[in-house]
Specification:
Helices cover 37% and strands 23% of the residues. The protein has 551 residues and is an alpha/beta fold.
Length: 551
C-alpha cells in the first residue's frame, strides 16, 4: 500500500497539539508531500472542538493506537478472480502476477475461497483419477474460452452442468455402445474428423460436441446440430490437448480452499502470523469490513518496513506518544518542551524551540517557506498560541509568540484579546464534565529517577466547581495512578480569570508531604501565579521526584 505519514500530537491532546498537527500536515502537502495526514491520539477537547467547528476545518483523523496491524505492513492490493472464471485462466493469472495464491470472490466481490497450488493439486487429482469417472462442472461458454474454440452452434452457453467427457477413440460401434449408456444432456464428446461419430453424437442429442484440429462440420451436420440443440465447438488443438483443456474449463471455485483463515486490515500482526503459519501457501487474504479482498498478506510482509511513518508535534517523548509509536519510523519532531529520553535509528529533522506554543513554530515555518497561510489555518494557529499561552500571559511566552500572534491575527482578521476570551470561555465548560474525563484531558506522562508520573491540565474560568468535587478528583487520580503504576498522578486546574492554579495530587506519601505549595487540604495545593505546566510546575516536580526517589 502507499505510504502514509501521520502528523501526530501527543495523547490526550490539547488545542495546540491538534492545531499544530493540522497546520503542519497542510504545510507539508503544500511543499510536495501528499502522503502527510493530520492525526490525533485522543478525543478532542471542548476548546479544540469549538475552534475547528468555528472555522469549518475537519478534525484530524483519530488514531487510538499504532499497535502493529496488518494494514500498516501489507503490500499493494492483490489480484482476485471471479468464482466463475475457468480454472485455466485463473492459473494463468497466478503465473502472471507472481502471487502464491489467488483469492476467489463472488459476484459482489466478497471473498469465498483461495486458490493455491496445493488445493489445485489435491482437487485436480480427483478429476483425472483413472479409477473413477470424472464429473466436471463447466458450461459451453467456459469450454469455448478455455480451449479457444470457434463456436459453430451454441445453446444455453452460460448454464453450468456436470459434464462427463467421452473421447471418440474406439471403433464406431463400440463408441456408440458407450455413448448409449450415458445421460446425453451431460455428455461432452471429443472427436476428430470422424463424420460417422459426429453424426451419431448429434443424432443422440449430446450436450456438446467438440471437433479437434480445427475441423469444421459439413453443412448438413451443422444444420442437424442446430435442429437438435447440440452445441458444437471447433478446437484448434489436437484431441489429447483438447481433452486436457476441457478439465481446466471447470470454474475456479471448484478448486478453492475454503479452510484458509482470513484477516482484517485492523487486526494485529500477531493474529496474522498465526493465520499465515496455518496456510499451505503461507499467505492469507486481507478483507475489509464488507468482506471484500483488499490484499494478500504473507511471510514477507511480516518482516517488511511498515508503510506508515510519523511526524511528532508538540511532544518528543514516547511516553506521551500514541501507543505503538516506537514500531514506526519517526522522521520529524517539532516541539517546544524539554527533551526526554528519545532516540532514532536514522537522522531526522528535529526542531525544538524555546517558545510558548508549537503553533508558533509552525506559523514561522509557513513564513520561512514562503507558503501563504489560508485564513482558516491562520485562525487555528492563532487559537493554538493563545490557548497554550493563556492569551499571551503565561510564563512561557516569548517575543516570537507575540510576533506570530500579531502576524496570524492580521491574516485571520481576528482581534487577539477578544478571540482569546472566546476560546478560553469555550474551554471553561470542562468543569461540567465527568471527573473521570477531566483528569484525563490534556494528560501528559513524564519520567524521572526511573519512575513515571502524570500531570493533566485544564483551564477554567473558576475552579470552584472542580474544588466542590475534590473527593471525586482524588478517587479518579488514585485509579489513574494505580492503572498506570505511576509514582503519582496530578491535575492542574488553571484559573484563566485570576491567573493562578490549583493542584490535586495522588501519590507517594513522602513525595506529597514534601510539596511546598500552600495547602488547601492534605492533597490539594494552591499555585499562585503558576500558569505553565511545562515551565513552572513540571521542572519542580521532576526535581522533587529525583530528590525523594534518588538518582
Amino acid at each position: 500500500m502507499n505510504e502514509t505519514t501521520y502528523v501526530l500530537g501527543h495523547k490526550n491532546p490539547d488545542t495546540d497539539s491538534v492545531v499544530a498537527a493540522t497546520a503542519y500536515a497542510h504545510l507539508k502537502r503544500e511543499l510536495g508531500f501528499p502522503q502527510c495526514v493530520a492525526a490525533r491520539a485522543g478525543k478532542m477537547s471542548p476548546q479544540a472542538e469549538y475552534v475547528f467547528e468555528r472555522f469549518v476545518v475537519p478534525f484530524p483523523v483519530f488514531i487510538p493506537d499504532l499497535v502493529p496491524k496488518v494494514e500498516y505492513y501489507m503490500g499493494a492490493g492483490a489480484r482476485v478472480v471471479d468464482r466463475g472464471t475457468p480454472l485455466w485462466d485463473a492459473l494463468a493469472m497466478m503465473n502472471q502476477s507472481g502471487q502464491k495464491a489467488l483469492p476467489i470472490v463472488d459476484e459482489d466481490g466478497r471473498y469465498r475461497a483461495m486458490l493455491h497450488y496445493s488445493s489445485f493439486a489435491q482437487n485436480i487429482l480427483k478429476k483425472i483419477n483413472p479409477h473413477k469417472k470424472a464429473v466436471i462442472p463447466t458450461s459451453v461458454s467456459r469450454l469455448q474460452a478455455t480451449i479457444k474454440a470457434q463456436p459453430i452452434c451454441s445453446f444455453r452457453p452460460d448454464e453450468q452442468f456436470k459434464a462427463h467427457v467421452l473421447v471418440a477413440a474406439l471403433e464406431t460401434e463400440s463408441f456408440k455402445r458407450h455413448l448409449d449408456a450415458e445421460s446425453k444432456d451431460t455428455v461432452i464428446i471429443i472427436v476428430g474428423d470422424r463424420t460417422d461419430v459426429q453424426r451419431y453424437a448429434i443424432e443422440s442429442r449430446v450436450r456438446v460436441l467438440i471437433v479437434t484440429n480445427g475441423t469444421l462440420l459439413g453443412r448438413d451436420l451443422k444444420e442437424l446440430a442446430e435442429a437438435n440443440g447440440v452445441s458444437v465447438l471447433a478446437s484448434p488443438y489436437d484431441t489429447s490437448s483438447t481433452s486436457l483443456l476441457v478439465i481446466y474449463s471447470t470454474p475456479v471455485e471448484t478448486m478453492g480452499d475454503e479452510s484458509i483463515r482470513t484477516v482484517r486490515r485492523h487486526e494485529t500482526l500477531r493474529r496474522a502470523r498465526e493465520a499465515i503459519a496455518e496456510s499451505p501457501s503461507r499467505s492469507v487474504p486481507v478483507l475489509d469490513e464488507d468482506g471484500r479482498v483488499v490484499g494478500l498478506f504473507d511471510e514477507g510482509d511480516l518482516i517488511r518496513e511498515p508503510n506508515v511513518s510519523l511526524i511528532l508535534v508538540d511532544h518528543n517523548e514516547l511516553g506521551q506518544a500514541v501507543e505503538g509509536a516506537e514500531h514506526y519510523r519517526i522522521i520529524e519532531v517539532i516541539d517546544h518542551h524539554r527533551l526526554g529520553a528519545f532516540s532514532t535509528r536514522y537522522p531526522i529533522t528535529f526542531i525544538n524551540r524555546v517558545v510558548g506554543s508549537t503553533s508558533t513554530i509552525i506559523a514561522s515555518m509557513y513564513r520561512d517557506a514562503k507558503v501563504p497561510i489560508p485564513k482558516p489555518i491562520a485562525s487555528l494557529l492563532l487559537a493554538g498560541i493563545l490557548s497554550d499561552t493563556l492569551i499571551l500571559k503565561s510564563a512561557t511566552v516569548t517575543d516570537i509568540d507575540h510576533e506570530m500572534a500579531e502576524y496570524l491575527s492580521n491574516i485571520a482578521d481576528l482581534e487577539i484579546d477578544e478571540f482569546g476570551r472566546d476560546i478560553m470561555s469555550s474551554a471553561s465548560i470542562v468543569s461540567k464534565k465527568p471527573v473521570a474525563e477531566i483528569v484525563r484531558l490534556d494528560m501528559k506522562e513524564y519520567g524521572a529517577a526511573n519512575v513515571s508520573f502524570t500531570v493533566s491540565q485544564v483551564e477554567v474560568q473558576s475552579p470552584q466547581e472542580i474544588l466542590e468535587r475534590s473527593a471525586e478528583v482524588a478517587s479518579e487520580l488514585a485509579a489513574l495512578r494505580m492503572k498506570g503504576e505511576h509514582y503519582f498522578s496530578a491535575l492542574m486546574v488553571t484559573d484563566i480569570t485570576e491567573l493562578s492554579s490549583i493542584l490535586f495530587v495522588e501519590g507517594d506519601k513522602e513525595f506529597v508531604s514534601m510539596l511546598r505549595f500552600p495547602r488547601l487540604d492534605e492533597r490539594t495545593f494552591e499555585l499562585k501565579d503558576v500558569l505553565s505546566r511545562k515551565k513552572q510546575l513540571v521542572p519542580l516536580l521532576i526535581e522533587l521526584t529525583e530528590k525523594v526517589v534518588g538518582p
